[in-house]
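Retro notes
What went well: the complex prediction finally ran end to end.
Inputs used:
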Amino acid sequence: QSALTQPASVYGSPGQSITISCTGTSSDVGGYNYVSWYQQHPGKAPKLMIYDVSNRPSGVSNRFSGSKSGNTASLTISGLQAEDEADYYCSSYTSSSPYVFGTGTKVTVL
Amino acid sequence: EVQLVESGGGLIQPGGSQRLSCAASGFTVSSNYMTWVRQAPGKGLEWVSVIYSGGSIDYADSVKGRFTISRDNSKNTLYLQMNSLRAEDTAVYYCARRFCSSGSCYDAFDIWGQGTMVTVSS
């Protein structure tokens, strides 16, 4: 099972919105609405931000939103803040693995 | 407080074995899906293994036949037995719990341990 494809880095200024893509196949992202997103600060464990494509766990800011179209899922961070600077990973249920993570995206707040 | 604490990492020679532990508090391991995820230095997350509440198990192809996931219900602890270790197994190993909310469970993981570092080198 190959890792889902994410851009290596995304940049944004405070207050702006950014979008991170996560591209898979019909056997994972495109085949199931079981895409989740994780935020990871350096030296820390991942934190669940989005589950089932677009749902936020309790306590996660509504500045984070998720969506999916075909084999590509997306995470949007609106009103970008300094504390959002971190690595972000998507994950999907798959027909074979059963889970696969994305390659990861480093978000830099300029 | 709901918490996971991993232990057992260290420096292991290639071909060697090591057992990682993940002690849970605040919830029952056997009632949840539990997973191991690893992260090589400077790299991304890689799913390793899962044990379902019913006891079924899955592994990533990269560790199949070498790693064994298990749990001890009396100790409320998850384990990962790693055999025939290779340099490419060097990573921080995290255990995590499946996310459940309002009576439903999802294919996502919300409670993570702090990680334990495994270094395979001679």
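What we learned: Chain B touches chain A at residues 35, 37, 44-47, 50, 58, 60-61, 94, 96, 99, 101, 106-110, 112-115 (CB under 8 Å).
What to try next: split runs per interface for comparison.
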